[in-house]
Amino acid sequence: MMEKVVGGIPGRFEFLEHMSDVYVRAYGGSIIELFENSGLALFEAMTDTSKINGSVERLVEAEGFDLESLLYKWLENLLVLYYAERVMCSQVEIWEFKIERKEVGEEYRVRGACRGEVFNPSIHEARVEIKSPTYSLMRILKDVDQWRAYFVLDI
Known about the structure:
23% of the residues lie in helices and 48% in strands. By secondary structure, the protein is α+β, with helices and mostly antiparallel strands. The strands form 2 sheets. Strands 1-2-3-8-7 form a 5-stranded antiparallel β-sheet, covered by helices on one side. Helix 1 (31-46) packs parallel to helix 2. The longest helix is centred in the middle third of the chain and has 19 residues, at 67-85. It is globular, with a radius of gyration of 15 Å. The mean pLDDT is 94.
């Protein structure tokens, strides 16, 4: 199936055509870079992140039971940061990514930071309002030298 690209930042993520929501294909040379680019795509859907300075930094963590649930929680926690503090991020950095073996499966964890500034509609472009990440069409794939994630953001 050929997806039509309708925007994004080349090499980091693309917005794919979707009837009613924001459909994202993110890339990374590592799983960490994939999660960083996925987080940036979330904010880029809402505004032009190149116009956001990095004057405010917030720590962000997430846990999941597999890669998809971890990506969902990561995106959800970044979105909660926006709705709680109105911080719109232009930089997303992960410094810890762990998979721990448990008696009943695995636990995935990610920790990092998001840098940006408080969103001001008189200065920053308002694009769409994201309600939530979803599991719709979500998948994470690993090729020889690249990771790809597909996910839908509910607007």
